[in-house]
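Input chain follows. Return structure tokens only.
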Amino acid sequence: LAHSSPTRTMASGMRGRWWLFAVCALLAALLLARGAHASGADWDADDDEFMAPQQKSDRLEDATGKVFDAVDKEAEKAAARIRVEERRYAKFKNYPPMFEWRYEGIGLIIITLWFVNFLVGDAKNKKLALAFEDAFCAEDGIFKSQFASVGDIPKKVPPRKGSVLSKEASDEYKIWCSGRRFCLGALITLKLQPRHDLYSAATAFQGRSIPDYCVIECLMNDECVQPGSVFAFGPKDLIENLQGAEGEKDLKKLCQTFVPKRDHGQRVTHKDVVIKAESAELANDVVFTPEVVKVIGESTWVANGLASLVAVHCTDEAPPKFGSPPHPKTLRFHFTMPAEPEKVAGAMADVMNMVPALVDVVGRVQLTPGQREKAAAARQKRKEDDFKEDLKANQKKTSAQILDEKLAKMTPAEKEAWKKKQEKKQMRKSAGKMIKVR
């Protein structure tokens, strides 16, 4: 009971995972220091063998008649212990030690590296997130001017006092904006590199690190995104990846690729940018927006969009991503962020201005009756094609299962006869029919 109270006090004072590792490392070092030169053998079983023989002391009697031992028992016990230790050392001196400082030293170095990397990586991600907040969510920022409320969700761990950011993890920050026409709100997710993770930091030196991402999901009103309003644009390779992603089948089966051009035939967008939409009218409405032209235009793409834009996708069948609430009608923006906090404001200013502009474009889109009928027919055809593909896949699976069960019940001789029979059938099919000519 006397030892349990300090332990509980120490455990309650630890607020971070790194404190636990530090204390464990200190305790391990203290324990191992005492046993660093201990042998790896178990001596408990040999205690009986090396017990010192009990010497019978001469019993003497003093003048008063009191009987006492001539040999001091404490000295005898001490001498016996010394003899036992000498015998143990003589027998086990060539055995390898139980602990070696080189192994414990490596462990302490790894723990120290993890601790230092955690502090440095967490601080760098925090600085990057605060740079984004200062650039676009301050009083004069674009989100404060476009939304009535910014950062009005309960924050888990605010990175600083008065911040609108919610720190979900060391590599993830969120901001919720609400109070704007055409949409219920916008969820901004900063998905940064896991710089606090030692393994990720080690792989970053090998050039395998992922970039820092900023994802903005605008939850559109139901009346703003109707069948026929699906579109996407971005670099060609990234749009192809988006088409093949799980839950993003609308781009592949409902949309076509368009190249909007001006009246004199000059294309509006850069050749490396792909525009996919359900109709040419929708593609023109999106591309000819001034804020969009400033990012993906033929003369502005390299300077303003190449380093930041990943993809923009508007859909009425959006799966929930990045912790957003389930809302199928979503306008999603996917950007990359510079790794240096001082470059965030300049590198992302143009793509951030594109966010409210496209929200207004999507909200004002008016589909003609012909476009609505075409969109409904395309969705019905996709539904039938998906049903046929699923049915075909299930039939193949069922046939394979039946054949496996049939073969499992056969004996080796029956399996060999079945294989020969199948080979003969294949030979007859490949040979074709023999035609007898008279």
